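Long-time lurker. I teach an intro course on protein structure, and each term I like to show students one example going from raw sequence to a predicted 3D structure in token notation. This year I'd like something fresh instead of my usual example. Would anyone be willing to generate the tokens for the chain below so I can use it in lecture? Attribution to the forum is fine with me.
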Amino acid sequence: MIQLKTTEEIQRIRESCRICAEAHKEVERHVQPGITTGELDKIAQSYIEKHGGVPAFLDYMGYPATLCVSVNNEVIHGIPGKRVIKEGDIVSLDLGVNLNGFFSDMARTVPVGKVASDALRLVKETRKCLELALEQAVDGKRLNDVGGAVWNHAKKFSYGVVKDYCGHGVGFSPHEEPQIPNYIRRMPNPRLRPGMVIAIEPMINIGTGDVVLLDNDWTVETADGSLSAHWEHTVAIVEGGSEILTSFEDLDL
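-- Reply from a regular --
Happy to contribute to a lecture. Here you go:
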């Protein structure tokens, strides 16, 4: 069941989203060659807790960290640890915040130093997939309008669109109904209406859209070893439009 939020509840989610976006800024400032993914995780957790929040992912369904750090061919749910970030990597950061029972979710892919042209284009065009999806995520549109925007742009570059994982509702918990696929599916296809809060998150691969789940039961990689990028915003549907709740100044790509 889709849970609609009141204006007051959306304000509370907005406050959670602000901390989430600012935590992203702080983490991204430290994404550079030589730092470990575990160190990035500690930065995220410290920032969230310092600002009155609780990491939404930590211990959620057993996940062992605050931050998901997925590098190069890792799609999502990369578990932070001893891995060292290197020049030329692309690093996807996925972060959620629980602020007094109201949840936010956000992801961005960060190029590290000088990256290969095909990797940089993947990051840019995945961000563009999100931007186009956001244009469709407004009062009166349907979920297939959102997913179709992602799919159609990605296919212009022959990229693989991940189907096994998707966006979702958010706000009262980290994951709620409805699912937000990054492609057009026959059913269900509900209309977007005021009070819905959703996380839109295209996951796009240079190669196949197929993925594999690693033995840790969390980390998802591309099936063919190709690069992957991931962008996500939390969005509130409001009368006549929408509001990007996790918005802040984009990376200079």
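Some talking points for your students: The two ends are 38 Å apart (CA to CA). The first strand starts at residue 54 and ends at 55.
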